[in-house]
């Protein structure tokens, strides 16, 4: 079996000329104007009501998997770009209740807490206002006219609050390629780029349930998170990583997926394939394609289930917190099989 979509010829790929390569890819994969000049949803437009109905029919056992990493002070962040791990503080405790210090009548007591954290410090969505290209945001808008000091005034994450519910497809790249790469664990090495040919090969190996198409939410497990759980975070946040190749942009565009999420900090391969570029695939898929990106997802338990059953699709609910004007959001994605 082979993939049922053939990607058109991609633009010339020249690592020594990153500016021209990025510009050509942006033109190749642009969705600007596709859903009108006022659109705020980008590729989430592919995930319509009919797709959600079909996705709900995938539930046969009712078993659930949380695809979130823990949100705690021991998380992956190291402070780069002021991204810190969550700080959880109790404002009322059981001891307060025991000593009657809470001011409630007749023995009533309780506990309360607060959390302080960057919105993209653990399992999260990148919204459409997160990345710009040459000062342009999704759909060709001026970046400064979209995101101001008061937040994203146009494509804030709240615009997706009720939309990211649908069919998820897991491509377990770490497990699928472990044998041919001679890996001890089902974990791709840092710097390993997942090209279109490799993505198609993984689909062929996994079978019909992993076909990727219109409105799907693609989950890609590299195994880097598994390695971090075993060996410690190291440079997980912002360091070298396996991930999607820059050359995968047309593959993602042509399949008309609604969103994509990986188990890595930055979704795309690091170091980048284009000399001197920083996150060039982000630079294409968010502002030009309008694609939602999920990062730092925990795909391990779902991957074990998929490997055991040979079934690589699930019903997924992955709603962002509707933080008005935010350009990203924490999420606790739930896959139901």
Automatic annotation (TrEMBL):
Gene3D superfamilies: Putative cyclase
Keyword Oxidoreductase: no
Pfam families noted in UniProt: Cyclase
Top-level EC class as recorded in UniProt: hydrolase
UniProtKB keywords: Hydrolase
GO molecular function, one term: hydrolase activity
Top-level taxonomic group: Bacteria
Enzyme Commission number(s) of this protein: 3.5.-.-
Positions in coiled-coil regions: none
Transmembrane stretches, start-end: none
Name of the protein this chain belongs to: Cyclase family protein
């Amino acid at each position: 079996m082979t993939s049922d979509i053939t990607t058109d010829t991609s633009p010339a790929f020249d690592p020594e000329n990153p500016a021209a390569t990025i510009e050509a890819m942006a033109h190749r994969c642009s969705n600007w104007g596709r859903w009108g000049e006022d659109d705020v949803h980008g590729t989430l437009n592919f995930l319509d009501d009919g797709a959600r109905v079909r996705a709900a029919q995938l539930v046969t056992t009712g078993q659930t998997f949380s695809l979130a990493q823990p949100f705690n002070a021991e998380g992956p962040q190291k402070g780069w770009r002021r991204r810190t791990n969550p700080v959880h503080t109790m404002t009322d405790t059981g001891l307060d209740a025991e000593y009657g210090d809470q001011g409630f009548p007749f023995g009533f007591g309780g506990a309360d807490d607060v959390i302080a954290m960057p919105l993209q410090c653990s399992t999260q969505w990148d919204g459409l206002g997160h990345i710009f290209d040459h000062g342009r945001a999704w759909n060709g808008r001026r970046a400064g006219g979209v995101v101001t000091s008061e937040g994203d005034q146009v494509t804030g994450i709240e615009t997706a609050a009720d939309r990211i519910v649908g069919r998820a497809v897991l491509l377990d790249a770490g497990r699928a390629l472990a044998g041919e790469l001679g890996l001890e664990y089902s974990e791709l090495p840092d710097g390993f780029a997942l090209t279109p040919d490799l993505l198609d090969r993984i689909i062929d190996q996994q079978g019909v349930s992993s076909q990727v198409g219109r409105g799907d939410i693609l989950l890609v497990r590299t195994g880097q998170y598994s390695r971090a759980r075993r060996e410690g975070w190291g440079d997980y946040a912002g360091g070298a990583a396996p991930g999607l190749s820059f050359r995968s942009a047309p593959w993602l565009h042509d399949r008309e997926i609604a969103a994509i999420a990986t188990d890595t900090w930055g979704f795309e391969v690091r170091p980048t394939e284009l000399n001197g570029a920083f996150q060039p695939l982000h630079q294409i898929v968010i502002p030009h394609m309008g694609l939602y990106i999920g990062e730092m997802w925990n795909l391990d338990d779902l991957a074990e289930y998929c490997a055991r059953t040979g079934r690589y699709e699930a019903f997924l609910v992955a709603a962002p917190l509707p933080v008005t004007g935010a350009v990203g959001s924490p999420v606790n994605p739930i896959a139901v099989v």
